[in-house]
Design a protein that fits this description.
Growth Hormone, Chain: A; mainly alpha; 3 domains; globular; 81% helix; single chain
């Protein structure tokens, strides 16, 4: 049930990203509105994932998971029926809300279902399912676009959701979760959501006065959020867990930095291949598959190894390999060979594959079973915040180096410089991530490896 969900959601997300030009033509969207089609989905997921993680601990993980699955199916159907930009953005926001329920429960359900000696392997297979979805989405999405139109890339989620709901209702018996205690933190949840909405919304409006106003509101809400959470008995974001639990806190920060470094990688490679290398989208997509495909292959291997080897060693080695791959991408020239591009993408894929499952294993092993939903939601929050920051770095670099002009041959030199800047900045982010990973401490208790 979880693995099918872990595959289908990123599959739909990456397929929709391929369909963005078709959506713009069909609904007459300008570039700014079009950029919000993926961004509003990501923002909604980040805003609601903590809420669903807490509810999963209080009310049951399977219940929240199935609510999310049903909601994703309904919102995907509505988004496919949209006739204008406002409708599409509204339904994409709903998609993101219900997807947050899946992000908050998938790893928690798997962690609760498998004993510690097998948990790393199970988490690795779950993460591998995500990467398989990311790999298949562009290719199958492009095929659907040729036969049908952009709506098919959204409707493809419906049969997946039906299968997931059938498995959850008919084949998965016992309720997973519901062991949590305490009350729901309404004030902290509101301030957290307000912070994200104001900061992301404000950044998109800069340098206008409205943008700065929203950023001030976001900063104020963040300060109030920290004050409220420190005083709450059962906070939505347990700062004590984050700062007192060394393994948990440092692993979460390492995840944030790694997603910030790697998430926008394929987007940048796509621009390089199609503009500077003049490859058609189909061939560019085949090259771009190298990174997620490599991730999918290495995640379960790393997950199995993390059952026996300290996760910090595997994750740190993965970060080092990732930084080498990013430096290789930063060294690309307009006339660099395709094997050079593919080799660098494979390196980043191997590195992130080695990092993701062991790091997640460390996080879930550092908390009590009653906190799996809350911990899982924090993992998802770090991932989503890292993804947004990754896109934010690109936006800032492009704004400073390219300005508000169409991408044309006369600015290709500046585009190349901007791409290299993004890659080198990403490689630099791997340095503190490696430090955090090495300093987190041990996960396996004495005698654990023998029993494993």
């Amino acid at each position: 049930m979880v693995w099918l969900s872990a595959f289908s959601t990123p599959f739909m997300l990456s397929a929709v990203n391929v369909a963005l030009p078709s959506i713009a033509r069909a609904l007459h969207l300008n570039a700014v509105v079009l950029s919000w089609v993926p961004l509003i989905y990501l923002l909604a997921s980040a805003m609601f994932v903590l809420m669903f993680g807490k509810l999963a601990d209080l009310r049951g993980r399977k219940r929240i998971f199935l609510i999310g699955s049903a909601g994703v199916m309904a919102s995907s159907l509505l988004a496919a029926l949209a006739t204008n930009g406002a409708q599409l953005l509204s339904f994409r926001f709903l998609q993101g809300v219900f997807t947050a329920a899946l992000y908050a429960t998938q790893i928690a359900i798997v962690s609760a279902a498998f004993p510690p000696a097998r948990r790393g392997h199970a988490i690795g297979l779950t993460i591998s399912s995500v990467y398989v979805g990311l790999t298949a989405g562009p290719a199958i999405g492009g095929y659907l676009l040729e036969i049908f139109d952009w709506r098919a890339c959204l409707l493809v989620q419906v049969p997946f959701s039906i299968a997931i709901l059938w498995l959850g209702l008919r084949r998965v018996g016992a309720e997973a979760g519901g062991e949590g205690h305490g009350t729901f933190d309404f004030a902290g949840t509101f301030l957290y959501m307000l912070t994200l909405a104001a900061v992301i919304g404000g950044s998109s409006f800069l340098p206008a006065r409205a943008g700065w106003t929203l950023l001030v509101i976001g900063a104020t809400a963040l300060v109030l959020f920290v004050v409220v959470e420190r005083r709450m008995e059962h906070p939505i974001f347990d700062l004590k867990l984050f700062f007192a639990n060394r393994v948990f806190g440092m692993s979460c920060l390492a995840a944030f930095l790694m997603y910030t470094a790697v998430f926008a990688n394929v987007v940048l490679v796509g621009l390089y291949l199609q503009y500077l290398h003049a490859l058609p989208p189909g061939k560019a997509g085949l090259v771009m598959m190298a990174q997620p495909l490599t991730m999918a292959l290495f995640a379960p291997i790393a997950g199995r190894l993390s059952d026996r080897i300290e996760p910090r060693w595997l994750a740190s080695a993965g970060m080092l390999v990732t930084s080498v791959g990013l430096l290789g991408l930063g060294a690309l020239q307009p006339d660099s060979s395709i094997p050079h591009v593919t080799g660098a993408l494979v390196a980043t894929g191997i590195g992130f594959g080695l990092f993701s499952a062991p790091n997640t294993h460390a996080i879930m092993s550092a908390v009590d079973k009653r906190q799996y939903g809350t911990a899982n939601s924090k993992v998802a929050t770090m991932r989503l915040l890292g993804q947004m920051c990754s896109m934010g770095i690109i936006t800032v670099v492009f704004a400073l180096m390219l300005g508000p002009v169409p991408i044309a041959p006369e600015i290709y030199d500046r585009l190349h410089t901007a791409l290299r800047t993004c890659y080198f900045a990403a490689a630099v982010l791997c340095v503190p991530a490696i430090f955090l990973s090495l300093a987190r401490g041990t996960v396996h208790a004495a005698g654990y490896r023998q029993s494993a």
